[in-house]
Amino acid sequence: MRYEALSDLYYLPNFITENEENFIFDKVNSAPKPKWVQLLNRRLQNWGGNPTKNGMILEPIPTWLQIFMDRIDQLDAFNDGQIKTNHVLVNEYLPGQGIMPHEDGPMFYPTIATISCGSGTVLKFERKPIQDCDTEDANDLPQNVSLYLERRSLVLVKGHLYRNYLHSIEELKSDRISTEICNLSSLDYQDGDRIDRDTRLSLTIRHALKVCKLKLRLGR
Ligand SMILES: O=C(O)CCC(=O)C(=O)O
Ligand SMILES: [Fe+2]
């Protein structure tokens, strides 16, 4: 579903099946322990390489993950299909964990595809201060945008919502559905519902713009 008022946001419920959701949990949880990066309020896995300002050295993507990236690529969301996704960040949130307001920034093509597994959550967007926005019409952009990401859903974020907003997940154990939630009409929930969080895995699938292939010189 596309939100006309926010042409930069697409929300698709049931993008993956329950079997695929379980499959993702199995694969993520069977990754080697050093693959996890433990942060203060969540842990994550980086697949495809470590994006830095100087570029990302491409690392092979496992087939199980490539399946989902291919499915995103087929949606032609990234520059009408001209650009293929090359990076996946897996975030794990326990109930009560979240992510501070941030932007994904210029290292990535300005489109984010996120698959949610295991739990829903509210994802919040807040517009940057007018002077930090890259458009004359920033005043016409809503100040706050919230959406509820159901488990197994896909959300695509691009354009203004990528460039001129910060996004965050509050550190809560449950989420309250209200009319502020812009995708309310496509949810199985109603205004006033409170939904407990469970462990959530999100796959954030993007295209890192600057990549380099590491040339290994073996022998002489
Ligand atoms: O878990 C999510 O849906 C958001 C993750 C995110 O914003 C990020 O990793 O940059
Ligand atoms: Fe982000």
Automatic annotation (TrEMBL):
InterPro entries: AlkB-like (IPR027450), AlkB-like_sf (IPR037151), ALKBH6 (IPR032862), Oxoglu/Fe-dep_dioxygenase_dom (IPR005123). This is Fe2OG dioxygenase domain-containing protein. One of its GO terms (cellular component) is nucleus. It is found in: Nucleus. Keywords: Dioxygenase, Iron, Metal-binding, Nucleus, Oxidoreductase. Pfam families: 2OG-FeII_Oxy_2. Belongs to the alkB family. Its cofactor is Fe(2+). One of its GO terms (molecular function) is dioxygenase activity. Residues 84-209 form the Fe2OG dioxygenase domain.
